[in-house]
Every structure is written in C-alpha cells, then in structure tokens.
Amino acid sequence: MVSGEVDVALPAGADADHEDRQIALWALYELHYGGFEDVDDDLEWHPTLLTLRHQLEGVFLAELRERYVAPESTEPFAEQLFAYIAGIDGPSLARFVQRNATRDQALDVLRARSVYQLKEADPTTWAIPRISGAAKVALVELQYDEYGAGVPDKQHSHLFAQGLAACRLDPAYGAYVDDVPVEVLELNNGLSFLGLHRRWRGAAMGFLAAFEATSSLPARQMAQGLRRLGLAEEMAYYYDEHIEADAVHEQLAVRQICAPVVAEHPELVDDVFFGAFTCVDLENRLAQALLDGWAA
Ligand SMILES: [Fe+2]
Ligand SMILES: [Fe+2]
Hints:
- This is Iron-containing redox enzyme family protein.
- By secondary structure, this protein is mostly helical.
- Helices cover 66% and strands 0% of the residues.
- It has 13 helices and no strands.
- The longest helix has 32 residues, at 233-264.
C-alpha cells in the first residue's frame, strides 16, 4: 500500500455505541504511540482518520464534561486541589486487592492495568512542549523518574512488564486489550485526549496531579495484597517503588506543575480541576466495572 493512497471511508463515529467508540478512539490514539505492525505508519496523520477522531473525541468530551462537578472555590489553589481530589468518592480497587481479592481477581487487575502501565507516563509527555517555565522543568523532572532516572531497567513501564512476566502474564504491549473492560480504554483515552490537545493542557496537568495524589497509599495496599496472595515479588516491587515515588510526585504535580501553570494562566484553573476530576472519575468507573464483573 502506498502512503497517502489509503482510502478510508468515514464511518458515522458519533453514532456508534459507547464501546465501539472507545475501541476506535483507543486504536486511533495508538497510531500516535507504537502503532500497529500491520497498519501503515502514515495513517497517523490521515485526514479522514483525524476527522473520525475529532467526532469521537467530541462525544467523549461531552460525556466527561457532563459528569464533572466543579469545586466550590479555588483558593488557595494547592490545598484546594488536594482537598478536591481527596473528596471525590469511589470504590478502591487497591483496598479490595489488599484485603479480599482472590488470586484470579488480582491478576484481572494487573491485566487491566497493563494497558496503561506498559506505556506508563507516555501520554503526559505530550504536554511537555505545551507548558513553560518552572512547570515545564518540574514536569520533566517527574517524567525523568517515570522513565527510570537514567537507568533503562528502572523505567516504570519496564518494572511493570517484569512483574507481569514474573506472574506468568503476557508482558507484550497491548496483550490484554481484548480482555479488559471498556473502562480501561476510557481511562487510557482520557489520558491521550488531554495530552494530545494543547487546548486541554491544564486538564492534562490536573489529571496528572490526581493520578499521583491517588497513587501512594493504593500502591502500598496493592503491594500488601499481592504479597498476601503469594504473587511474584517483582510485581509487588513495582508497587513498592510507587509508595515513595508518588508521595514526591503528588507534591511536584500539585505545587510545582499545576500551581505555576495556573499562576501564569489563571484561565486554566477550572481545566485543572476538570482534569483532576476526570482522572478519579475514570479510575472509579474502571474499579466499579471490575467489581461488578466479579460479583456477576
Ligand atoms: Fe510510575
Ligand atoms: Fe509517579
């Protein structure tokens, strides 16, 4: 197939059902990451696919905005953001793994997590050229940690892959995409959507802040749960690494990334909260989907 000669008929993206829309969006975003072996790399910027992506994103964004509950006040910013994130209720998957999950249920969680964790931090990297000054420097510092702080084997995505293999799960990128609930794709698509749109850079940073601020305690619970179940130490180690790392990252994300972003661009304050809400909202939907699936 010759690049640029691809004939792509535009399906009615907005009319597809929710699951098909999320699968299509996930596949379209993947063209911007590792792509697919049997898909022409030039399709990444094919105008018809970009039009379809735009349609799908419009529906997705409307769903996210409809669920968003704005904070009542936004001063002082950092404390308000921490309190706002902590105040969004939802089921805790990590607490369930810590106390109640069976081995199979814990493996389901790892399969679900693998879709993002094997490209951990990548969607946030899109935001680096979209912010500036002290916030950019702090974001690069945070991402440097995620990418192993100079040591390839310490990349968080690599640690997760090692953990999967040690649990006798498939560490290949995307191996479980067909097996996980659609909410996993929603979460991934939320990250990619915010990261790829300069318009939503404030929300991308709010998402990052919520992600980091809701990671340290759950990482401890996950590590305890995996050890309770006798699952591979390599997987527990991945979570051990996040107990302290994300306690640092949440401070970086809120005080040194989001705070300077909104100091420079006060018009982005609501977007930061929208991104933070969306992170917790999509995490809650994923947790509920897994819990419901096990209860069925
Ligand atoms: Fe990480
Ligand atoms: Fe982190």
